């Protein structure tokens, strides 16, 4: 009895075993997405640990590219490894779900997920960024818009007034690039992402921004993939003009493994005057203290809307086009403690924490109770572009089709294929991926 009393006393006196959680994202302090890493380490982790005694949270920082991160996540989720909470691009969700690598939050955690206060402040459209086939798999951190980032100082040097600069057609955009090239022969005045190494950045920042300008999308109204059209040819001929015929862009950078970083450096160093990117380029890539910081950014850098091929010829009859995506967080289906992981995920996306994140990096939030604080650039661009935006198809085949878009653009900018040949190969590849019944030709 005496020993039983001693053992009971020890059991009562011994604290509960410590619990460990891990967050992972493509973020590195003083590197890529530095503000995101700093927010997690300086705000999320200490505040969550303070509110949850015995819980230890760590951040796994990933410095590689988007495609490398996707491969790592797929490997982790398929082998029972990886962080409990993972940074995730919403367009990947259908692929991961179809492969059995993600579970809906309600199934993984329980019905309490639906009681989270944050859903009342997130629109259905924003919730859909991290959803698929009726299930919610994560919470988006925010959304974005795409535009032409402009070096005002280079335009002025070429005799173009940056204050009034707004191309109203592809030809006007090309004419500006030609004028800059004439004034600065060694420059690469225009950057429209192409090629395989840039991955989804080619599809989103390059191809989508062009194909929407033709009035087309990647799919038709019935969700069938467009594999042959005048719009596709127009886009490929635009790439050919920029990179092959007139050498207005850095063709080599589109084909190198570090090509995207090279294009960032071209803009920073004044070699490129116009670069099509998402608002992330402003709030992270060129921000003070980043690797590609643009000195005196708010004095030398401005923006313009991406024009349709001709006025009124864009998506929905628009004069200008853009597209939005959404990145956020998912719970690893292999987590040892789904309920605690959900507590961390919902805590990260509470109003208090998202407000705090805005002090590290102001951005467009999906919560309607969080404002962009004192950030004229993001307020101006989101106000002008969100009414024009659209989104990628929520389809499990999209990722594979996107890879074919990247190959198609690379074939043209490398000079290996004509636009007609590249489109023919694209048609064949996409038909094999989705089935002929899920494709359509508009020619």
TrEMBL record:
<protein>
    <submittedName>
        <fullName>Putative extracellular solute-binding lipoprotein</fullName>
    </submittedName>
</protein>
<comment type="similarity">
    <text>Belongs to the bacterial solute-binding protein 1 family.</text>
</comment>
<dbReference type="Pfam" id="PF13416">
    <property type="entry name" value="SBP_bac_8"/>
</dbReference>
<feature type="signal peptide">
    <location>
        <begin position="1"/>
        <end position="18"/>
    </location>
</feature>
<dbReference type="InterPro" id="IPR050490">
    <property type="entry name" value="Bact_solute-bd_prot1"/>
</dbReference>
<dbReference type="GO" id="GO:0042597">
    <property type="term" value="C:periplasmic space"/>
</dbReference>
<dbReference type="InterPro" id="IPR006059">
    <property type="entry name" value="SBP"/>
</dbReference>
<keyword id="KW-0449">Lipoprotein</keyword>
<keyword id="KW-0732">Signal</keyword>
């Amino acid at each position: 009895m005496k020993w039983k009393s001693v053992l009971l006393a020890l059991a009562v006196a011994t604290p509960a075993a410590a619990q460990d959680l891990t967050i992972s994202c493509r973020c590195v302090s003083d590197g890529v997405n530095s503000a995101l890493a700093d927010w997690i380490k300086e705000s999320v982790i200490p505040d969550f640990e303070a509110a949850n005694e015995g819980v230890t949270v760590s951040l796994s920082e990933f410095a590689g590219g988007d495609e490398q991160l996707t491969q790592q996540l797929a490997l982790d989720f398929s082998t029972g490894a990886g962080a409990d909470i993972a940074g995730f691009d919403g367009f990947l969700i259908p692929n991961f779900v179809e492969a059995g690598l993600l579970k809906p939050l309600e199934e993984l955690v329980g019905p309490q997920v639906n009681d989270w206060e944050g859903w009342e402040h997130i629109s259905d459209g924003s919730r859909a960024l991290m959803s698929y086939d009726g299930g919610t798999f994560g919470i988006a951190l925010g959304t974005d818009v795409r535009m032409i980032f402009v070096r005002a100082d280079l335009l002025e040097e070429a005799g173009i007034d940056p204050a009034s600069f707004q191309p109203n057609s592809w030809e006007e955009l090309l004419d500006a690039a030609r004028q800059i090239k004439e004034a600065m022969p060694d420059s690469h005045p225009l950057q429209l992402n192409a090629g395989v190494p840039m991955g989804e950045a080619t599809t989103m920042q390059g191809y989508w921004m062009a194909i929407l300008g033709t009035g087309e999308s990647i799919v038709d109204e019935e969700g069938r993939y467009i594999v042959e059209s005048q719009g596709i040819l127009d886009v490929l001929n635009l790439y050919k003009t920029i990179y092959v015929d007139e050498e207005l862009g850095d063709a080599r950078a589109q084909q190198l493994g570090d090509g995207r970083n090279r294009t960032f450096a071209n803009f920073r160093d004044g070699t490129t005057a116009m670069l099509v990117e998402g608002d992330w380029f402003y709030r992270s890539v060129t921000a003070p203290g980043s690797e590609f910081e643009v000195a005196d950014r708010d004095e030398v850098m401005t923006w313009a809307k991406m024009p349709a091929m001709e006025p009124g010829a864009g998506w929905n009859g628009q004069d200008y086009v853009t597209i939005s995506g959404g990145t956020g967080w998912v719970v690893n289906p292999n987590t040892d403690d789904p309920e605690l992981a959900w507590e961390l995920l919902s805590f990260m996306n509470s109003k208090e924490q998202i407000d705090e994140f805005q002090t590290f990096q102001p951005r467009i939030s999906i919560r309607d109770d969080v404002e962009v604080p004192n950030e004229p650039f993001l307020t101006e661009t989101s106000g002008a572009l969100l009414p024009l935006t659209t989104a990628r198809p929520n389809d499990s085949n999209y990722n594979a089709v996107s890879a074919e878009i990247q190959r198609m653009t690379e074939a043209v900018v490398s000079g290996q294929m004509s636009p007609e040949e590249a489109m023919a190969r694209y048609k064949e590849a996409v038909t094999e991926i989705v089935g002929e019944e899920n494709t359509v030709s508009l020619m």
